[in-house]
Amino acid sequence: MADETTRNITTIVLVLAFLGMMIFVALRARKNREEMLKNHAPKVAGEDQLEGGARHPQRFDEPDEEALEEMAKLLGEDSDDYEA
Fold first, then answer.
1. Dihedral of the CA atoms 3, 4, 10, 16 (nearest 10)?
2. In Å, what is the CA distance from 72 to each residue of 34, 47, 81?
């Protein structure tokens, strides 16, 4: 009789432990899935934070001589043709 009672108690404890582990795994899987969907959701313009930028943005305010020459070359303006 004691042997059968021990077996029944052990079975109940193991079943409860199994159910507890299954609930834990299910909750953890749901949490991981929600985090994954949140992290991989499509980006909406204005909602994401852009990182980086120019180190010295003021240097782009005025073009240097090399940039002016390159622009003149691209526009087909030669300094020899426009001498006044």
1. -170
2. 55, 40, 12
Whether 72 and 78 have beta carbons less than 8 Å apart is answered as yes
Report pTM: 0.48
46 found inside a domain: no
Number of separate domains in the chain: 1
Let me know if residue 27 belongs to a domain.
Answer: yes
Which has more pLDDT, 21 or 38? 21
Of 13 and 39, which is predicted with more confidence?
13
Q: Do residues 32 and 39 make contact, with C-beta atoms less than 8 angstroms apart?
A: no
How far is residue 43's CA from residue 45's CA, in Å, rounded to a whole number?
Answer: 6
Whether 19 is covered by a domain: the verdict is: yes
Domain range for 9: 1-41
Would you say the C-alpha torsion 77, 81, 83, 84 has a positive or negative sign? negative
